[in-house]
Design a protein that fits this description.
Keywords: Glutamine amidotransferase, Transferase. It comes from Streptacidiphilus jiangxiensis. This protein is α+β, with helices and mostly antiparallel strands and 289 residues long. Helices cover 18% and strands 35% of the residues. It has helices spanning 27-32, 112-119, 131-145, 150-164, 280-286; strands at residues 3-8, 14-20, 37-43, 49-54, 67-73, 75-81, 96-98, 101-109, 166-175, 180-184, 192-196, 207-210, 216-220, 228-232, 243-244, 249-253, 259-263, 271-272. The strands form three sheets. Strands 4-3-6-1-14-11-15 form a seven-stranded antiparallel sheet, with no helix packed on it. Strands 7, 8, 9, 10, 16, 17 and 18 form a seven-stranded mixed sheet that branches.
């Protein structure tokens, strides 16, 4: 299953070191865990989005490539891809960038020809082959139609997909230089929120989060002194303040790290897919580790 991670330390810039994909334990592990891409997105001091990403394919001699990147930003977005749609290529690796925003997705949307038809001329925003980037283009269009209101754009795009396309899951994280949005829909995959005070639960610790299986680790000494808001596909430590987002819940973390949460999609997808409905590659990409 793809892994999502988003962090905001706004209004402060934070130094963080990310390890995306640690080395494999064995060749047998390689045959079972085949990450198809890793990516990290952040923003420069003047608000320009930056992305470091690469396809990491099963045909290589190792299941996991070790990437380390030390950067400074108010917001971060990390993604580890297990491909369901699109070739193993940089153009299909998350995060994606459009209109100065970064986006990553975990899930499956089907009937891409109908989504392409809905996008029309905005299909030109899409550089790769994935359902994820197409959905991002729909969010970008709907955001522009609503005067730049990203939350309204996400809600409108998700509602259109829920009513018109076969859908397995639509968990997303979207970031700008100083804001973060996340959506969990429906209840297929988990998405967790942690509002972390400076120093964490004990008040004296740096941030040191490690995901299940060592796929993602984040370390920041700066967050001994500053708070942060984290969104992730799984609880990354034993902090008791992790909260599971509700199905259909849209989360917004503002420039001052104020968190607003509301359920924007209370209805089930009209064409909800199960694992049994997916083709084998897509089904494999959505299995829990």
């Amino acid at each position: 299953m793809c892994r999502l991670f988003g962090l905001s330390s706004a209004p402060h810039r934070t130094r963080a070191t990310f390890w995306l994909l640690e080395a494999p334990d064995s060749l047998s592990d390689q045959s079972r865990r085949e990450p198809d891409g890793t990516g990290l997105g952040w923003f420069t001091a003047d608000g320009r989005p930056q992305v470091h990403k690469a396809p990491v394919a099963a045909y290589q001699d190792r299941a996991f490539a070790e990437e380390a990147k030390s950067v400074e930003s108010q917001t971060f977005l990390a993604h580890i891809r297990f491909a369901s749609t699109g070739a193993l290529a940089v153009r299909n690796t998350h995060p994606f960038e459009q209109d100065g925003r970064l986006f990553a997705h975990n899930g499956v949307i089907e009937d891409l020809p109908r989504l392409d038809a809905e996008l029309g001329a905005d299909r030109a925003l899409v550089q790769g082959d994935t359902d994820s980037e197409r959905f991002f283009a729909l969010v970008t269009r709907e955001t522009a139609a609503r005067g730049g209101d990203v939350g309204a754009g996400v809600e409108a795009a998700a509602r259109w997909v829920a009513r018109n396309l076969p859908l397995y899951a639509l968990n997303i994280v979207l970031t700008t230089a100083d804001q973060l949005w996340a959506l969990r829909y429906p209840d297929t995959h988990d998405l967790y929120l942690l509002e972390r005070p400076a120093g964490g639960h004990h008040g004296v610790r740096h941030l040191d989060h490690s995901g299940t299986g060592g796929r993602l680790r984040v370390h920041s000494d700066d967050l001994t002194r500053r708070g942060a808001t984290v969104v992730a596909s799984e609880r990354l430590d034993d902090n008791p303040r992790w909260q599971l987002m509700a199905p259909g819940e849209l989360l917004h973390v503002g420039p001052d790290r104020t968190v607003t949460r509301r359920v924007v999609l209370s209805e089930e997808p009209r064409h909800r897919l199960t694992l049994a409905d997916l083709h084998p590659a897509a089904a494999a990409s959505q299995q829990s580790a």
